[in-house]
Design goal:
The complex is a heterodimer of chains A (about 350) and B (about 240).
Chain A lengths: L6 H21 L2 H26 L7 H19 L3 H24 L4 H20 L7 E2 L2 E2 L6 E2 L15 H22 L3 H11 L1 H6 L4 H27 L1 E2 L6 H14 L5 H18 L6 H15 L4 H33 L1
Antiparallel strand pairs in A: 1-2, 3-4
Helix pairs in contact in A: 1-6, 2-6, 2-9, 2-10, 2-11, 3-4, 3-5, 3-9, 4-9, 7-9, 10-11, 11-12
Chain B lengths: L5 E12 L2 E12 L3 E5 L6 H9 L6 E6 L2 E2 L5 H5 L3 E4 L11 H10 L4 H14 L15 H14 L4 E5 L7 H15 L3 E5 L3 H7 L2 E6 L2 E7 H6 L1 H11 L1
Parallel strand pairs in B: 3-8, 3-9, 6-7, 7-8
Antiparallel strand pairs in B: 1-2, 1-4, 4-5, 9-10
Helix pairs in contact in B: 3-4, 3-5, 6-7
Classes of the chains: A mainly alpha (about 350), B alpha/beta (about 240).
The structure holds adenosine-5'-diphosphate and magnesium ion.
C-alpha cells in the first residue's frame, strides 16, 4: 500500500456513489430502499474499522462498542431534545469522547496490540450486559427509558430545526447516502493528510515513527477517537433505519461482522469494506429467507475462503490485477516498438 | 580557541540487565559540531549506551543531558523532537512504503509540505537514491536500505545525529560513500557514530571513544588508540 494514495480516486468513487443514490429509487423496491438506511449505517461502521485497523494498524475488536454508543446516544438525545440534527452530533461526540477516555488508558499505558483487541472486545461485551439490565422504569436518561433487553425507540430523522417535520423514507435514504458519502470522502481525505500518513507509518513501524519525533500515542489516540466518532455516526443511521436500538448492537456478533466486512472488502482500502457490507448484508438476508443453508454458516465459509484465497480482500486484489495488466501491456508495447525499430534499422 | 559548548553529556550513566552491567558509570561529553566514534568489541555496551541516549531504554541510574536539559528516561519522540536524527543498529524502516515516502515522513516532522518535498528531492540526489525513490523499501538490498535510513536522517536536517553501525553490511563502495556523507553531515551537525569498520573510522573521525565491558576504556584519536597495546588487545584481540 502506497502512502501517497490519491484523493482523486476517492472523489471518483464519491461521484459514482452520487449517481447510485440518484438512480437507486428507480432500481430498487420501496421496501429495499427502507432497508438500505440501516445497511448504510453498518457500512459506515465498516468504514470506521477500515480506518483504524487498515490504516492505523490498530485492531479494534470492539468497534461495535462505539457504534452502539452512537445509536443509544442518538436515541436518548432525540427523545430529550426533540430533534435529530443536534442528536446526531451528540452521538458522534459521545462515541468519540468515550473512545478518547478508553484510548488514553490503553495507548498511554502502553498496552500491547493484542491486549487492545481484547480490551475493546471486553468493553463492548460489558456494555452489552449492562444495557440488557436496564429494563426497569428507574433506568432512564431524562425522558428516555433505556428499556433493557427490548431497547429503546429511535426517532426518525427530521428537517433541521423542525423536530416535527419528519423525513419520508425516500428522503431518509438520500440523507443517509449523503452522510455515507461525506464520511467516506472525509476519511479518504484524512488518510492523505500529514496526520493520516503518520498514522500509516505507525502501522508500518511504530518504533521508527517515534524515533522520527512523532508522539505515536497521541496520533493513535486521535485516530482511535475519530474512527469511534465515525462508528457512532454509523450507529445513528442504523438505529434510525431499524427505528429502535437494542443491546444487540454491542454483541459479539456485531463486532465479528464488522471485521468480516473489512477482511472481505480489503482492509487497506476504504471503499472495499463499504461495498462488502452491502453485498454480504443482502447475501445473508436472502439466505435468511430460505431454509436450506444456514446464513451464518455461509458467512463463515466466505470468511475462510477469503482469508485463504484473497487475504488482501476483493478491492485490493482487483486493483493489483489491473495494475499488473497495465504494466504487462506497457512492457508489450515497448517490446513491439523495439522490434519495429530494429526492423527499420535492418530494412 | 574557546572550547565549544557541550551538547550531549552523560553523568554516571548505568544500564544493568539483571546482573549484566551493559553500561557502567559512563561519563561522556560531546561538544557542538563534534564527530565522535564509539568503538569496542561486541557486547561492550555501545548499543545499550546508544539506546539510553535515544530514549529506547530507561537507564538504571545516572543522567542523560542534551543541551542542558535532563532527558533521562524521556520518550524517544521527545528526544528526537529536540532535533536529533537517529539510526538504530537494527534496520528500522517503513517496509511497506517507498523510499521517497520514508524520507518524506522524516522531513515532514520538521518542515512544511513544500519544504519537505524539496528537501527530500535534494537528499535523494545527494545520496544517489534516484533509481530507487519509487521502490518499496522492504524489497531493497541491505546496503540500499541502510542508505535510505541515512537519507531519512539527512532529510530532517538534525543538529545532532546518532548512528549505530551505519556501514554494517555495506559494500566497500557504499561504505566509502557513507563515510563521505558522515563528514558532510558533520559540517552542520554534531555526530555520535558507533562503528566496527576500522577503515570507516579512520576515514571519518577525530576523537574515538573505546568502550570495554560497559565503561569507557580510553578516549583519544585513532592513532594513539591503535598504538596502545591494551587497547589493541581489547579491540583487535576480539575482532579476529
Ligand atoms: N535487552 C537486553 N537484555 C539483557 N541483556 C542485554 C540487553 N541488551 C544488551 N544486553 C547485554 O548487554 C551487553 C552489551 O550489549 P550491546 O550494548 O548490544 O553491545 P554492543 O552494541 O557494544 O555490541 C551484552 O552483554 C548484551 O548481551
Ligand atoms: Mg551494537
Amino acid at each position: 500500500m502506497r502512502l501517497y494514495g490519491t484523493f482523486n480516486g476517492t472523489l471518483v468513487i464519491a461521484g459514482l456513489a452520487i449517481i447510485f443514490t440518484l438512480i437507486a429509487p428507480s432500481i430498487f423496491q420501496f421496501f429495499t430502499i427502507i432497508t438500505l438506511t440501516q445497511v448504510i449505517g453498518l457500512s459506515i461502521l465498516a468504514l470506521s474499522l477500515a480506518l483504524v485497523w487498515g490504516f492505523g494498524g490498530i485492531l479494534c475488536f470492539g468497534q461495535s462498542a462505539f457504534f452502539g454508543i452512537g445509536a443509544y446516544a442518538y436515541s436518548v438525545a432525540a427523545v430529550n431534545i426533540g430533534g435529530s440534527t443536534g442528536s446526531i452530533f451528540i452521538a458522534i461526540l459521545a462515541a468519540a469522547i468515550f473512545a478518547a477516555i478508553l484510548g488514553y488508558f490503553v495507548f498511554y499505558g502502553k498496552v500491547s496490540d493484542v491486549y487492545l483487541a481484547v480490551i475493546t472486545l471486553t468493553v463492548s461485551l460489558i456494555l452489552y450486559s449492562l444495557m440488557r439490565r436496564t429494563s426497569g422504569p428507574e433506568y432512564k436518561i431524562g425522558k428516555a427509558l433505556l428499556g433493557g433487553f427490548n431497547g429503546t425507540g429511535s426517532a426518525p430523522l427530521n428537517m433541521p430545526g423542525d423536530g416535527s417535520a419528519m423525513l419520508f423514507p425516500m428522503q431518509t435514504f438520500y440523507v443517509s447516502m449523503a452522510i455515507l458519502i461525506i464520511a467516506y470522502v472525509f476519511t479518504g481525505w484524512l488518510v492523505t493528510t500529514k496526520f493520516g500518513r503518520v498514522c500509516i507509518s505507525i502501522r508500518e513501524n511504530e518504533v521508527r515513527t517515534e524515533l522520527l519525533g512523532y508522539d505515536t500515542r497521541l496520533y493513535k489516540l486521535c485516530l482511535f477517537s475519530i474512527s469511534a466518532g465515525i462508528a457512532g455516526l454509523g450507529g445513528v443511521l442504523f438505529c434510525v433505519g431499524v427505528t429502535r436500538v437494542t443491546p444487540d448492537v454491542f454483541s459479539l456478533g456485531q463486532s465479528a461482522l464488522a471485521i468480516i466486512w473489512v477482511i472481505v472488502g480489503g482492509r487497506m482500502t476504504l471503499i472495499g469494506p463499504i461495498l462488502a457490507t452491502f453485498v454480504l448484508y443482502f447475501l445473508t438476508s436472502s439466505l435468511g429467507s430460505q431454509q436450506i443453508l444456514n446464513a451464518n454458516l455461509v458467512l463463515g465459509i466466505i470468511l475462510v475462503i477469503f482469508v485463504l484465497i484473497v487475504p488482501n480482500g476483493v478491492v485490493p486484489t482487483i486493483m493489483n490485477w489491473f495494475e499488473r495488466r497495465r504494466i504487462k501491456r506497457y512492457a508489450r508495447q515497448k517490446e513491439r516498438r523495439m522490434k519495429l525499430r530494429k526492423h527499420r534499422a535492418i530494412g | 580557541m574557546a572550547r565549544r559548548e557541550v551538547v550531549v553529556e552523560t553523568r554516571n550513566l548505568s544500564m544493568h540487565f539483571g546482573g549484566v552491567r551493559a553500561v557502567d558509570n559512563v561519563d561522556f561529553e560531546l561538544r557542538e559540531k563534534e564527530l565522535r566514534c564509539l568503538i569496542g568489541p561486541n557486547g561492550a555496551g555501545k548499543s545499550t549506551f546508544f539506546k539510553c541516549l535515544t530514549g529506547q531504554l530507561r537507564p538504571t541510574s545516572g543522567d542523560v543531558v542534551i543541551r542542558d536539559i535532563i532527558m533521562t528516561g524521556r520518550e524517544s519522540h521527545e528526544i528526537a523532537s529536540l532535533g536529533v536524527g537517529i539510526k538504530t543498529q537494527v534496520p528500522n524502516l517503513f517496509d511497506g512504503l517507498t523510499a521517497f515516502e520514508n524520507l518524506w515522513l522524516s522531513s515532514r516532522r520538521w518542515h512544511g509540505d513544500r519544504r519537505a518535498n524539496t528537501l527530500v528531492k535534494e537528499t535523494i540526489d545527494r545520496l544517489e537514491l534516484g533509481e530507487i525513490r519509487g521502490s518499496i523499501v522492504g524489497s531493497l538490498a541491505h546496503g540500499q536500505r541502510q542508505m535510505v535510513e541515512l537519507g531519512m536522517v539527512v532529510a530532517a536536517e538534525p543538529w545532532l545525529v546518532l548512528l549505530d553501525e551505519p556501514a554494517a553490511g555495506m559494500t566497500d563502495e557504499e561504505t566509502f560513500k557513507t563515510a563521505e556523507l558522515v563528514r558532510e553531515i558533520n559540517k552542520t551537525s554534531a555526530l555520535i557514530v558507533v562503528e566496527h569498520d576500522m577503515n570507516f573510522i579512520r576515514a571519518i573521525s577525530d576523537i574515538v571513544t573505546l568502550f570495554h565491558q560497559g565503561s569507557i576504556f580510553m578516549e583519544d584519536n585513532m592513532d594513539v588508540i591503535s598504538a596502545d597495546p591494551r587497547a589493541r588487545e581489547i579491540y583487535l584481540g576480539q575482532k579476529t
